[in-house]
Amino acid sequence: MKIGIVGTGNISTRHLEEFNKIDNVRVEAVCDTNKANLDRFLSLNKRNEIRGYSNLDEMLEKEKNFDGISNTTPDRFHKDTTLQILGNGYNVFCEKPLAENYKDAKAMVDAAIRSKNINMVNFTYRESSAYQKLVEIIQSGVIGLPRHVNACYYQSWLTSNKWGNWRDEDKWLWRLSTKHGSNGALGDTGVHIFDFAVNAVGNIKQIFADLKTYHDKGEKIRDYVLDANDGFNSLVRFENGAIGTITNSRYATGHANTLILEVFCTKGSIKVELDEERRKWSTLHICEKENVNEMSWETLECPKTPNNYQNFIKSIQNNKNMQPDFVQGAKIQKIIDSCIKSNDNNSWIDINN
Ligand SMILES: NC(=O)c1ccc[n+]([C@@H]2O[C@H](COP(=O)([O-])OP(=O)(O)OC[C@H]3O[C@@H](n4cnc5c(N)ncnc54)[C@H](O)[C@@H]3O)[C@@H](O)[C@H]2O)c1
Question: Staple 91 to which of 68, 130, 309, 351, CB 3.0 to 4.6 Å?
Fold first, then answer.
């Protein structure tokens, strides 16, 4: 199968590696509007014999018969490039967040449905086998009804140098600037933690959000105005009656990339905690049955489950769209829009799913 990639920055390498690991699947062509990024990608991946182009128009004109195209451009380019990919009749695997706002995300859903192409969004943390098991257990009802949820996402790239110095690199600076199409931590990593919670617990009915931008880190670097939020807290009410907090920070010193989801139900509790090195991605914690009275937790190791790249290929092969699809991406986008509205109005917002 022939795969293309649009955008050869940071995350594109992972797309290349994961697709090329799958039998009979090869990334054959890539494009980037930034020549330096394209050249770096091609020189680092010489042995893969990939053809490079300076923009999507050129790639679509010179290359035919893609089975699927990955969209790894920054958030603000997702809509136009994805519509172009779909318009050319190709299946698309788009990076998160699906778009900059719900209106654009909905336009992408409509185009995907019209085109009948496979469409998926890369909510990476779905790939944790422990998370997959957590969803299965909650949905089976064996630990009762969800009552209380704690979901948080911690990063520390504003205080640590784990991924380099954010002041020097475009790939971090665009994430701090609304003019560059970023909804800050909320749009960048908040989408992951909302997807994580909603997919496991159910739709959110109402939300109250407090977004925070720390201006003492500086107001502007080069063309980047540093006005996007650095973190948020949200209070949520789920449609099924559960309540919870969903939070996210880029100032969580001591955490490179940690996601925690705890769901307390009427007959038990369940928890996953994912780390940057993927050491804990298969580990699930559960307190149920007689352990409920002992406050004691069992630890389960969950067998590996397919990742999003494998599921995208499987969707194409079976012509059956797997999750997470654009509809889910748009649902999460609506929550992001509602958080911004809640913060601006200092009020609870109804989310009509
Ligand atoms: N799923 C995940 O866990 C995960 C992790 C990291 C990034 N991402 C997402 O991936 C996307 C890219 O992030 P990144 O960190 O790789 O950014 P990046 O800035 O490192 O790379 C983006 C690349 O896209 C190129 N580009 C911009 N417009 C283009 C266009 N119209 N056509 C072709 N190329 C274009 C840029 O020149 C750049 O090389 C973002 O939406 C981000 O949110 C997702």
Answer: 68
Ligand 1 is surrounded, with C-beta below 6 A, by: 6-12, 31-34, 37, 55-56, 72-75, 77, 81, 95-96, 122, 124, 170-171, 188
Task: For residue range 210-255, list pLDDT tens digits in order.
Answer: 999 999 999 999 999 999 999 999 999 999 999 999 999 999 999 9
Q: How far is CA 114 from CA 64, 77, 86, 95, 108, in A?
A: 21, 21, 9, 20, 10
Choose the CATH number for 125-305+331-350 among 1.10.10.10, 3.40.50.720, 3.30.360.10, 3.20.20.70.
Answer: 3.30.360.10
Residues whose CB falls within 8 Å of the CB of residue 90, separated by 6 or more in sequence, listed in order: 4, 66, 67, 68, 69, 117
- The domain spans of the chain are 2-124+312-322, 125-305+331-350
Hey, which of 31, 71, 92, 95 would you mutate to test ligand 1's pocket, going by the most ligand atoms within 8 Å of its Cβ?
A: 95
Alpha-carbon gap, residue 214 to 353, rounded angstroms? 32
pLDDT digits over 278-320, tens only? Answer: 999 999 999 999 999 999 999 999 999 999 999 999 999 999 9
Q: Is the pLDDT of residue 353 over 80?
A: no
Nearest-CA residue for ligand 1 atom 3 is 124
- Using most ligand atoms within 8 A of CB, pick from 72, 257, 276 the residue to mutate for ligand 1: 72
Domain 2-124+312-322 fold is Rossmann fold (3.40.50)
Say if CB 278 and CB 253 are below 8 A apart.
Answer: no
Spacing, Cα 306 to ligand 1 middle (Å): 23
